[in-house]
Design brief:
alpha/beta, Rossmann fold, 6-stranded parallel β-sheet, 8 helices, 34% helix, 17% strand
């Protein structure tokens, strides 16, 4: 059982993204909202130059048995952390993410142009990141809860199904009418699923 739950945001860097879910969870673990330097309202950090640096920042905060709850881009970081320190990760919860697989090949829309219009100061290294973890996911022997919406054009259900087929201990739940914002708009439906997952 985790003694800490780290909530990882998506590319917007909004740490409040997971606040509705976190407030509803009954699990007693310490709840920590992680930010991304240079994303959202978080100030830039010259030492953060790529995904590897974000992964290292999260790894540094996992000093006890921890669960990672991640949205979208945060799911890639979470998966990288689980691959790096599997002995310290008790559970994964991945919502509408790529998780390190080819989203475009599974029908996902290219969100980057419109996202850059809305967030023009985002670091270019993030926009250009194309990492593929598919060949390594079978080694992630961590109980994983996959949360998807059936109306998400950015990360369609096919991505969740692909991760389900690659991860040895995964379970997929699809939220009817859910879009890429399921963490905020469907918190009351997600929180009991996450509580049950963390207690398992």
């Amino acid at each position: 059982m985790p003694s800490r739950i780290l909530f990882l945001p998506g590319a917007s860097g909004r740490t409040e993204l997971w606040a509705p879910v976190a407030s509803l969870l009954e699990h007693p673990a310490e709840k920590v909202h992680v930010d991304w330097p240079g994303f959202g309202s978080s100030p830039r950090d010259a030492s953060v130059r790529g995904i590897d640096d974000l992964v290292a920042r999260v790894v540094a905060r996992v000093d006890r048995p921890s669960a990672l709850v991640a949205q979208s881009m945060g799911g890639v970081v979470a998966m990288r952390v689980a691959l790096a320190i599997p002995e310290r990760i008790t559970h994964l919860v991945l919502a509408v993410t790529s998780g390190g697989v080819d989203v475009a090949g599974l029908g996902g829309q290219d969100w980057r142009p419109s996202f850059l219009e809305e967030w023009p100061t985002l670091p270019r290294w993030f926009i250009d990141y194309q990492g593929d973890l598919s060949s390594r996911l079978a080694t992630v022997n961590v109980p994983t809860l996959l949360l998807w919406g059936d109306a998400d054009p950015v990360s369609p259900v096919g991505v969740g199904e692909r991760l389900l087929s690659l991860l040895p201990r995964a379970e997929l739940h699809v939220i009817e009418g859910g879009d890429h914002d399921i963490a905020e708009k469907h918190a009351r439906r997600l929180a009991p699923l996450i509580d049950r997952h963390l207690a398992g």
